[in-house]
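MODEL INPUT / OUTPUT PAIR
PAIR INDEX: 1
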Amino acid sequence: MDFPAVATLEAADIVAAAHVGNDLQTPAAHAGHRTLLERSVLFHDLPAALLDHLLAHASECDLVPGSVLFFKHDPSSFVGVVVRGRLYKVLYGADGQELIVGTIEPGGLVDEAALLEPHGRSFTAIAFGASTVLKLSRRHFAPLMESPLLRQRIEALLRVRLRQALDSLESMCLHRLEVRLARYVLRQLEVQEWQRGGNCAIVLPPNQSILAAMLNVSRSKLNAQLQQWKRNGLVSRRRNLLRIHDLDALCAKAYLHANAPLRTLAWHGEDGLRPVPCLPLLPCSG
């Protein structure tokens, strides 16, 4: 990744010690954080007393680019709320290969599962660019979880995370790069909701190394695939803006020509001979 990784626990501790404090409650900071929370998906329309509790007991943690909020397997002693910048959820292979499994934007929770039960962290949280996180210690969780609406939203968010994890597992294990990239673009079109006229566009991650880590592919292969799409007229790119010129073609690549006629074969079932779809794991002739 193109930002400085914190290689040791000691370095991360130094960063945390230098930038964590309890002085977020200046009037300007308090008002800004409260406005962000009130507009976020998780916290909007929640009782004012609940937001007061969160802001009164949270400590502000300023992260420099590339610093680590916590490592995988660390105890879930706090939950974080991103109020500035962006954090990536990263997994590491034995050879140091990075896989980005999620992005947390302002207003988002860092490891929301910690609110439901204590556990070891399932990923490493790294800041991209200067970021600020409000850290709420576990001893202050109870009032939050007494809110049925917030608990319902967190449980719904975890279900979404599970579906996303299954989709990612399918894409990375069963599909080639072009399919994975096409599905990523379509997901971002939905998330970013950026459509203008007959064309659609998305904002790509700040650098290509990050996108490559999200798709579990080398940067060179990712660049080659983007260049092929550009030559074929499927997309055009200007800096981090990717514009899609043929959305139908992109959908066909993402879902393996789902609109094409499905091949079938004869199947002797309990109801006699009938046609069934020719799935990849079934032997098909012809």
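PAIR INDEX: 2
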Amino acid sequence: MVTHSLAVYCGGLERPILQKLSTRFTTDTTRWITQLFGFLDCSAFYHEDHLEGLVRVTRMMLHCKYPRYLEDGALTLNNSLPTIYSSVASPLGTVQHLCRQLGLPLACVRPVPVNTYFGSQYTMDVSALQKMLADDVATGRMPLIVIADAGTPVTGHIDNISRIRELCKVHGTWLHVRGHSVAALALPNYNQRNGTVPPIADSLTLTLGSWLGIPGLPMITLYRLWGTNNPNRNKQVGVSRESTLPVLAGLNTDHQSRRILSLPLWTGLQKLGTEGVHSRIKEDFLASERLWSALDVFRQVRVLSPKPGGESGTYTVAELVSKPSSIPLLMESTACSVVFQFVPETSDNSEYTAKVPPYYDKLNSWLGQILQLDAPQVPIDICELENIGVVLRFCPFENVCGQQPNLEEMQAFIVCLEQQLVILKATVHHRESFVKLVEVSPVLKIVDLPDWAGLGGVRYCPEGWEQLLTDQAKEELNHLNMVLVDTLRSTDAAFSLGEGDNGLMCVRFGMLTPESDVEKLLDLVVKVGQSVEENSRVLDSMSEIVKKGIETATLDLQKENEERLWQEGIVRHIPIVGTFVNWWSPKTKDAGGIRGRSLNLTQGVVESTENIYKYHMQMGQGIAPGGITPPTPQIQTPIGGSHSRSSSHASASSQQSAIKLDSSVKLDSSAKLDSSVKLDSSVKLDSSVKLDSSVKLDSSVKLDTSVNVKPDIVKSDGVVKLDSDFSKLNLENSLNKVNSQNKEVVEIKENNI
């Protein structure tokens, strides 16, 4: 913050003063950087875009190879097409951006294949590059620049830079090197050579901001000065053409600008000093070395980044600092990143070399997310390689906080990783039995979840539903599975709701431990699913009853209101006139108002509410406070129809309504006859049998002396015969009424009186 504030302040100074400050800051910073990385006789270009330095170096080579490029532009490229060489392992966007900025066709790019038989499969094949250079020269193309990697963007492998350098010298091609492993040149041992060793390349890209953990620092492109290899350069009079090429390409620093790009870097180097820079770069390499060594002991973890210490692994970062070493050994003995992934276990305990199955990509993604949450002290990135799959990457050179994890934090990370590996192995082990058990289950169906890393997904589907999946059935099935997941989550949080490719919901199983029992988990899903299914039927039936009850009550109230209107007269409801009529002829108390309605879910009828207002409570039939038997509600309307999903209950009730009592049945004193019971001719009712209001009596049913006959007995078919003890029988007035529908009369015989 202070540095940027100072830069803004300097931008407001007078131009001569600003020019002097810019020159001083840039000159000092360039001198420190070149000495730090052992790249003498070079100049520096400071830029904010990480590809801008490469673009201007390539433009400089265009001016070098095509002398008329400044005057004729693209016309000079017709006779000999410039060629840019880059590894296929490098990001394609780099060369595409390069061609767009320079106005070159993509035909100028020559992708160099990687090693297939010898060496790392992530590094450039030098033999293929040599053949391509020779063929291009023979066909009239112009080799322009070779872009090599000292630490590939993901895995951190290093191209064979020394051999590539020799090929570039032979064909007069510029070599540009980039990557985090370039930071190894700043180790103290290499700096002690005092420039006796030739530079590693013609130009380098340095990202000191990420290497030192200081955000806001500019990128640096170091490029060698032209004519440094010419022994007669001191005898040359005047300015050579080569010395003007950086100016033509825009590689020189503009001291006339109001911004001083090198000021933040100058301030950072002043604060850290040479020892501070060495210490931070050393800690970056040590962090990679520690993690690589810790991961190497896990059998099902494949490490894809190069091994620190070279192929033999005998060198350490501390030894490289204290002992002399060559540039190739320095590059091979350091690792700028650690890339690893969880792979299947091989039968012969050999190294797994193929691409992992798609399911393991999901497992590695899950592992990376868990490590990011539970062990954030070691920053992990989730990447994907074309021929490998999803991998986890730790790169200390991209750690913006600038402080690497210490030994305790690294050990805590390894403990967390080991715990998650146990879970991953258990999940993979249980997955095979999980699929087999689901396939044999009649109500569970396996669901493919492309983005789910857990055990898998199943859908609870009752038998017969899979063949009749209409739109309504799909909605009910989704609702059933959603309720199932909500119920399961109350017992175990490992269950979650998922969605298949066909849009149907399912139950997702999470990760398992070695102690988990897959069979018990699936049995739990089946039992809970059956319970939810039964509850859904009851609720659907109950909701249908309530719905029909509301409709019936509405119709009854509407009908009763119309009848009251006609009984009272329309005149009473006319404004002003009705008031006079009511004064002249008041309403009788018996007229009353419209009775309310209540729904009796037990009997499935809509009843009037006069008993509720009389006793100030709801009660069942035949129950009242103080032993008083409440009268039957004056209005009772049965609810018809049943829901389709309650067919089993409907069939049961239909069987119940068909019950018929034959002659051998004797009803006890506590028996109560339902409305659906049909009495045969020879059934004898005991003294205290209570007949319900809608019991249907045959013509020859004998009533005992103390049978309580309700008014609705008049609806029975035939003639009701009364015993000789008629004097004790309580007959109500309704026995003398005529049923208007059946035209049947209840007769009282003379010999029974």
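PAIR 2 NOTE: Residues 659-752 form one domain.
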